[in-house]
Amino acid sequence: MKRLHLFEFHDLSWYPNDWRNLLTDIMTSFAVDCKPYRPIAPKLKTALQQLNCSRIIDLCSGAAGPVDSLLEELDTVGGRPVTFTLTDKYPHMTPFEQTAAKWPDRVSFCEEPVDATNVPEELDGFRTMFSSFHHFDPETARGILQDAVHKRQGIGIFEYTERRLWPWVPSLFFGPVVLWLITPFMRPFRWRRLLWTYVIPLWMVFAFWDGLVSCLRTYLPHELEEMTADLGDGGYTWEIGRIRSFGACRVTYLLGVPPSDTT
What we know:
Strand 4, helix 4 (about 95-100) and strand 5 form a beta-alpha-beta unit. The longest helix is centred in the first third of the chain and has 18 residues, at about 15-35. The strands form two sheets. The chain has a seven-stranded mixed β-sheet with strand order 5-4-1-6-7-9-8, with helices on both faces. It has a two-stranded antiparallel sheet with strand order 2-3. It has a domain at about 25-165 and about 220-260: Vaccinia Virus protein VP39 (Rossmann fold, 3-Layer(aba) Sandwich), CATH 3.40.50. The chain has helices at about 15-35, 40-50, 65-75, 95-100, 140-150, 170-180, 190-200, 205-215, 220-230, and strands at about 55-60, 75, 80, 85, 105-110, 125-130, 155-160, 235-245, 250-255. By secondary structure, it is α/β, with parallel strands linked by helices. The mean pLDDT is about 85. Helix 1 runs parallel beside helix 3 and helix 6 (about 170-180) runs antiparallel to helix 8.
């Protein structure tokens, strides 16, 4: 299936924040309950150990869903606890603050917007992106990798969506039914979530479109290989592949590690 770089509504600046936050809340609920990224923890820890790095700079964090399950798996590197710094172009402060309160010594966040193609120098550490790389067209996506290479930072890209009909298309059609059933039990509880789900559920139409487009935009391993082929990487080691995760879900991953003597 050819990659189609269609738009997603929640990427647009005019899209209501309430609806954008509903989508990130759902993704967080899935990440917390199903833990699709837990299987990549050993690979991520190996990359951190290669660099003797214990600080992760998470780009495009959304509602910080994968952080909980990964912090349970990632303990220390070089005797130091692994920490996350959450960042986003549109910082979702409520989940950022809640995650930081749950892990006070291991999670911090940036209140100001952070551009993944030009990460500030002071945010040094191993960069990660979960379920967000597909939002960027090939040129911009390559720019994200190039910025990491230019600043000699490790980077990890992880996506649980795929460009295939099974299991994603059936899941998208049944998604609204599942949302109607689980919304009252999602935590933290929000009255506005009930309003937009049961009284004015228009946002679900946009969410269905965004979910379908996420699959159609997800990069395949060979496309990631092409993207890293001419970065002028100066000794970077790239590992690209897939790993089995929750149910029929597979995580596509890219890990870029610079020579340890340059970090």
